[in-house]
Structure formats: C-alpha cells, structure tokens
Batch of 4 targets.
Target 1
Amino acid sequence: MDDCTPSMPDPDAGQLAATLMSRLSAGPVATLGGFAEQLSWALYRRNRKEYGCDLSSDSFLYTRAAIVAADRDTYEATLRDPRLFAPYARDLLWAESLLYVPDEAYRRITGDEWDRSTCYSYESYSNTSGWADAWPQPSQSGR
C-alpha cells in the first residue's frame, strides 16, 4: 500500500484505491487474496471498543479503513495509542473505497464476482474479544 499512496492529499482514499486496483488487477489472483487477507487483518485489529464505542457500524468501518489508508506510521501509532483514532472519527475521515478494491480487482482479472471470505471479519463489532466488556454481560442465575 505504501507504494500506491498518492503524493497529493487523498482524503477519501479514492486515488489510493484506484492505484491499488490497477496494480492488483495486473497480477495473479493469489496476490489479490493476500491483499484481502492483510486488509481484513488490519481492519480487525482496530475493531475494538477503545476505537469505536460512539460510532455507527458503517462510520466505524469506514474510519478504520481511513487509518489503514493513511500510512504505516499512522496505523502503527494508533495501535500504540488509541486516542490518535479520535480525530479520524470526529472528522468523519472515511476510506470506504478501500473496502471494494479486492472485489473489483478480482472482477477485472476474472470477469466474475468474487465469493470470498477472509480469516478475519472486518465488519464492525465482529471482534468479540475486542468488545468483550463493552456491553453488559447476562447475569448468571442459579447460584
């Protein structure tokens, strides 16, 4: 991704997504699968209560994508300090277009829809360990 980052501001990651799509469309499907796995893992790692308690599921997903699209330093910094995520959420910095790169690149390579799944779900709130104590737990009866 770092090699595909545009030199000009790209607030919604549209240029990044287009460049990634072009590059991935030129390569083998296996490379595309690897990218999809890495993207899902990167999004999953931010799928935690300290990042998204006050966001709708779509806003939370698109904001996490913006962190991934920003650059490696920003991504790593937010892992160390979740407070650095707040400006992205507050200012609604989204990179929704990044989410469609694997499917569109696959369609360009094969002409077919990609019926895929990855090892990690990046859908908001799917990381159960990251949200384990965010909601009240059911009480245990019979004690």
Target 2
Amino acid sequence: MALPASERIVPVPVIRIELEAAVAFGTLRRAFEAEVPPLDVARLRELLSAGAEWRQLVSELAGPGIHRFVRFWTDHPTPVMRIGGADIPSAVYLIGDYATAARMFRHDPGTLLYTPLRVELHATRSGGSIVSVDQPSSRLGSFGNNKVAQAGFELDRMLGDLLEELGLPRPSVLRR
C-alpha cells in the first residue's frame, strides 16, 4: 500500500565541536557521568501516573548542575569495536532537559531529531581524551523558527556551562 506523502529536503549545516583534553579517558568519562546523571525513569513514571504538573515534573527531573542536563541514554561501544579491530575506549550519550525540549516541541515536534544532544568521548593515542558534540544552535536553526533558534542558543549556553563544570574550556562557538 502506498501512502500519499510530500517531500521536503532541508540542508542542515552543522558545527561539530571537538575538545582535546589532557586527561585520561576513564577520568573524563567518570566526571561526565557524575556531572550528568541518568534520568530517573522510575520517578518520571511516578510523576506521570500521579498527574504531576509541568513545573513539578521539570523541577524534579532536571539534572543537578547549572546546565540541568540528564542522560537519557548511554552506550559504551568499546567491547564491540574491539572485536571489529579498533581498541579505542569510547562512550556515547544522549543528554538534555525536558524544559528546553518542550519549548521547541511546541513549535515543531521535528526538533526532537536534534534534542537530546549526542555527545561522544574517546581516548587519544597520547593518553588524553576527546569530547565531540554538535553545536545545538547550528542544527536547530534549520527549522526557520525564531523560538526554536532561541532555544538552540540556550542549549549552546547550557552545553558551554557543562563543559566548564567538567573543567574544560568553553568553546568559542558557545560564547555569546
């Protein structure tokens, strides 16, 4: 069965940020995971079942840092990649916060394609680590909506705050 559909192709320019840190991968990974805790899914279910109001849900599920990020998903692909012939420690995360995501979702549900943010950490051959993440506003600007773009800039700020909390420098593209 063929469904009627129309097509829209939107080129999305993106700025990828890479920070190389002179710190061991395990140290940076532990710091990241301590600074960005996993989403408390049990608490989320409790709040939804109890009919919690938005303000309570956002307040109780926000991360503890100034950035408010929580981890929605974590993957440690190193064991699989090792079998594939690349023994480089790596970790991948989806991080975000419900408040900022909801502000964008109201204007275009498609923004969930870019929120939560995907962050990747990996070890370098010299014993350091690299943090890679796409600049949120560079992707979210493609929606052509000022409210979404403003939320993208807010995510830029939050991401910069997170990196500084980890002891890393705020990248130049995240300075406003």
Target 3
Amino acid sequence: MAYDENTAARVRKLLAGQRYVAEKKMMGGLCFMVNNTMCCTVSGRGGMLIRVGPEAHARMLQEPHASPMEMRGRIMSGFVRVAPEGYQTDAELKRWVKRGLDFVAAMPAKTAGRKATPRKDASAKSKVAAKAKAPPRGRAQKDPRR
C-alpha cells in the first residue's frame, strides 16, 4: 500500500522552514528525517508514525486516535501511530509534527552516514605466525657447504 501523497505534501509544507530535512522511503512509507534523525513517517498502512520518545510514549497514547506502533509483533516504545482522523485539520497535523520535532531537537545531532569501523585482517594471525617461523631479515644464512 502506498503512503498518502496528500498527507506527505502537508508535512513537507510544515517542515519547509526547518533546516536539514530529508525524505527517505522506509518503514513502509515516507520518512521525514530532521538532522539525520527520524521525526515522523507517512505510513503505507495508513496514518502516521510520530517519534515522541520513550518518556512521552504513554502520555501520547492517551491522545485521541493514537495507538502503539507495532513492528513485527513488537511494540516500539517511543513511536505512536496516529490514525488519519487525528490529523484532519492543519492545526492537528502541526501539533503531531511538532511533537516529533521536539523529540528530535532534544537529541544530540548525528553525522550523516555511518563511519566504517576498522576490521582486523582475518589473515593477520597467519601472517604473524609466518613471521615467527621465518628467519630474521637482513641476516645472511650460513651456507651449509662452507
């Protein structure tokens, strides 16, 4: 199921004044990233996913049209699913997107992309073992014929 293009356009309009906004197709919908951190998603299953953080999760579930976000049978604390009825007006949508922005603003900034961690060469042990068996460099071996 494709995400709601109309809702995505409305979210784009709300985030137009924000810096460092990117869109990524993920989690079955269109995810809006702010400062390389997920803020909200227009879901392909209908509705929106809003990142509110684990501390606000229970409180946000008390809001009308909000329910827990479930992924592969697990409840994802820190995210809520909001039914389309919960953001019909521009004011309601703005309130939900602002909650996602508030959570992102409270997080430390991330850098774009992941840095590769250096890996040890798998053959490093065998190279060390080979060096231990090899004669030291720079020394000439005695000719057994002499």
Target 4
Amino acid sequence: MNTWLSRILSWAAAAVVGGVYGIAGTIAHSLTWGPVPVGLIVAAIACAALLVAIRALTHDRASTLAAGLGMLGMVTLISGVGPGGSVVVADTIWGRVWIYLVAGLVLLAVAWPRFSRPQAAAIVPATPAPVEAPPIVTSVPGVREERASDGT
C-alpha cells in the first residue's frame, strides 16, 4: 500500500512540475533577439532537460508521462484566448513550433528505449557434461629412478 501511495504522489508531483515548466516555456517561447527565437530554444532545452532528468532518475515511464501531460495540459490551457481576449501563444510559426515541439519532446522521452536492462544470457545446458580428470603422472619418461638398496 505504501508503495502505491508513494508512486501516485510522485506522479502528481511530476505532473505539477511539468505543468510549471509548460507554463514558463509557453510564456517565454515568444522571446526573440532579432531573427533568433531565444525563448523557444531556452524553453525547449528546459522542458527536455526536465523530462530526461525524470526519466533517468526514476527509471519510470509513468513519471515521465505525468510530467509530460502536465506540460501539455498547461500549454493547451494557456494557448487559447484568455477571458480578457489576450492570447499567450500567437498564431505564428514560432507558436506552432512550440506546441508541436513540446508534444514531440514528451513523446520522445516516454518512448525512449531502456538500455540499462541486463542482456539475456546465452543458453547453457542445465547439466554440464562430465569432465574427465587428467591422468596422474607416476613417472617421467627418460628419467631413471634410483632406489635405495638399504631398504629405507
């Protein structure tokens, strides 16, 4: 019971943190310096780093998915027209790239294969074949043995 409770709480925490990163990235994505979309680049790096960190630290796809759903949920929630008519994500190329980029990052982080699994061992017979003992050497060829004649 305690294990399930801790897993559910960790999923909820991952979703909240993912949502915070989604909000911050959505607000910052529109920052540009000339033609360079600096906000989009920094937001994408931050969101990707969070997803990779959660996946690497927990080794759990569900935690990564929870963080990703938190991100996607907040991006979707604040991408629409607000109650006062304001728009956070404008219908521009960078706005569209941001929305699809977050979805792609989540998909990539959750679907990334697990490489840390031990490889399957080679098939080994259950009972090994008996091994013959090497012959015992009692004499060395070419060497003559001298015996004591006094009986000792």
